[in-house]
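In the current project phase, we have settled on a layout for protein records. A sample record is reproduced below.
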Amino acid sequence: MPQYAILRFSKQKGGFGALESHHERKKEKYASNPDIDTTRSHLNFHVIQPVKSYKKEIDGRIEVAGCKLRKDSVKMIDTLITASPEFFKGMKRADVKAFFEYATEFIIKKVGSSNIFTAVVHMGEKSPHMHLCFTPITDDGRLTAKEIIGNQAKLCKWQDAFYEHIVKRYPDFERGEPARETKRVHIPTRMFKQAANLTKQASKITAVIESINPLNVGKKRDEIFVLLKKFIPNWESFESQIKKYQKSNDRLTKENTALVKQVEEKISIKEQMGFAKLHADYQLLRGTMDLIPPEVLQQYQQAPKPVTKTKER
């Protein structure tokens, strides 16, 4: 089966404390994410260890650089780096660490070591992955995610450069075809749009969570509740579809020689890469569910759901 190295970006304007709690595994339980095995959290490790809280790391860099801020400025890029699950099967922890250290070298070359404040690898889920966070500050002191991350064309160049870096040491990886060329073959376009919309909603939720303090806790919980009414139904639909694709993918990619040819025939390289991108978005969105205060989630679950009326024929 083809193997891919995966690089995904998520722009963050706020909610840094909540993201820190998730990335650094500061919660005791993750009821909303059954993929997280906290008994394996001790196996997690840092390639780059944060010295202060995420918020202080970010604010300190912005202050030193003298960046001009807007109300809606993107202050942090949450970078997810992983690879096809098959790549990690049977791999020793030292080799997993070497892979993520090498991947980190690529980000350092692109954005500068001074902008990166954490790079933590999670080993307690189905597949190892790394959350690397950095401030999008240019050499001349401007805070601009748009210039560093760019549009679709620039993102494609990021992917090309990442592949060229990774394949020097891991030649078995293949370069997935850009989305603008694949046309999202076999995976509905609406799923990619849905992932993008959910990411925007998740950013709003994490920003509200981060702004909670003893004086506004009631008001902010109400704001989260309103956002959840829109987010959770869409999330549940997206999650259901992801699991459907995962189930189909798992069925066809069992390590059985007799199935290898069948897999190659039934799952195109374009489709595999498309699913890999969706799954990376899925992992980022799961983190948002872990950040929601349990009492707010319980309030949502207990609230009466709207009844869908059927039309008479």
The two ends are 50 Å apart (CA to CA). Strands lie at 5-12, 45-48, 76-83, 116-122, 129-134. Residues 217-252 form the longest helix (36 residues). DSSP finds twelve helices and five strands in the chain.
